[in-house]
Design brief:
86 residues; 5 helices
Length: 86
């Protein structure tokens, strides 16, 4: 699907800074938000953005401060670390 968006000049530099591909920036922003809201899976993000592997998705999500690491994950990791260092 191709979408055309008109951005008022006064906001263009903020929404798509000079040197950035405005269409790509809008796609990435929208994709990150959809992932954050649970509307897309990591695999769907990968395909939507044309990444070859999932390993490219994690740094992308990190730029949007989206991390798939919960407090429960931390507790489990700490428990495993304690168990392994005894």
């Amino acid at each position: 699907m191709q979408v055309t968006v008109e951005i008022p000049d006064e906001f263009a530099a903020v929404l798509a800074p000079v040197g950035e591909d405005a269409a790509r920036k809008l796609l990435e922003d929208h994709t990150a938000q959809a992932y954050r809201e649970g509307k897309l899976t990591m695999e769907q993000v990968r395909r939507a953005l044309g990444f070859a592997t999932r390993m490219e998705v994690d740094p992308f999500l990190g730029r949007y401060e989206i991390y798939d690491y919960s407090a429960q994950d931390l507790d489990e990791d700490l428990a495993n670390l304690r168990r392994l260092t005894r």
